[in-house]
Amino acid sequence: MRRLKALTAQPLRGLRHDAMLDVLNYFDTKCRASKEITDRAKGRIPGGVQHNLAFNYPFPLAIEKAEGAYLVDRDGNTYIDFLQAGGPTILGSNYAPVNERVAEVVRDCGPVTGLFHEYELKLAEIINRFMPHVEMYRSLGSGTEAVMAAVRGARAFTGKKMVIKVGGAYHGWSDTMVYGLRVPGTYRMNAKGIPFGATARTREAFPHDLGQLKRKLVENRLRGGTAAVVVEPVGPESGTRPAPHDFNAKVRELCDEFGALLIFDEVVTGFRLGLGGAAGYFGVTPDLTVLGKAVSGGYPMAGGVGGRADVMAVFGSGLDGKSGAHIQVGGTLSANPLSCAAGYFAIEEMARTGAPVIAGRAGDRLTRGLQRLIDSYGLPYVAYNQGRSCTWSAAASCCWTCVTR
Fold this sequence. Notes:
By secondary structure, the chain is an alpha/beta fold. Helices cover about 40% and strands about 15% of the residues. The chain has a seven-stranded mixed sheet with strand order 4-10-9-8-7-5-6, sandwiched between helices. Strands 1-2-3 form a three-stranded antiparallel sheet, with no helix packed on it. Strand 8, helix 11 (about 275-280) and strand 9 (about 290) form a beta-alpha-beta unit. Helix 4 runs antiparallel to helix 13, helix 5 packs parallel to helix 13 and helix 8 runs parallel beside helix 10. It starts with a helix and ends with a strand. Mean pLDDT is about 90; it is low at about 390-405.
């Protein structure tokens, strides 16, 4: 944090024009097949790619093969996959022991049945084994859907309407949470196409500012109370604004004081920071936990929400008559056998191999090496690692072993 404070006090530095030309020359000469296909894609796909993480300047790379820690593009260039497909491939890409077992399940029943399958239960059970605070779990299609469900569930359970997030945090692209997105204090700057009513009961507190968070909670009492405080436990935008180690514990105390639920968005941290997630790493128990990415081992339909059994009762399927606050969530492909089996096998393999611990050691080693380079050349970056993850970025993107400019 001291390094970050000193860095932000420096004047902005420009890029060397000759260095940028070298980078652009690589793309022009080595990545022609990627350019050809992504140029074609612009005619049928907005922006040329379907996912924001795939966008790259001057054009996206088109990947043909993924194996372990490596990606190979259409031109045959090989890259080290620090991004890990945006987070889910903790075991590495195209991990054969999981693929083979998932294939057996699909051979028996196909990827979806529309009815109950045993791996729905097995996934919920293995999540509870490593995250005991997730007493019940509801599978959904993505992290965005899971955040939507968690917020709706918190409002239904508490009877309160206001929700507070930490400014700059990313909790998916649902209408309610596209507020103070990526840059703290920007309110609705990124909310084009979203009516004002959708964000009218969302508030943001500045990162690390517990005093401001408490003031928001006090203000919300006059508006009917706060249903939930939603945090990325490592800090906003996947830890690029790292949270002090005691921050989550203090947020927990404030939630208890004001009768709000604490929601941990562990879409990125779940099973990567450790098998117990950020809750285990920080020793703080949230009321609801949002999972995504790694929860299906890199397979599709990766998302879900879990937590205290009494809170989770609002997500009950069907009309059992036991929960007066029942809310409607779900999807045709949610909790399909392919995704649930993949998640179960992947978490089992992570436990067997100690993958999060191995990644954590690699992340520490990478951080030390990066910091040596930064110090040697006087570069305007700060490198750091939180917990057990091995990713990094030169522009403060989705990572914990980060280089922040």
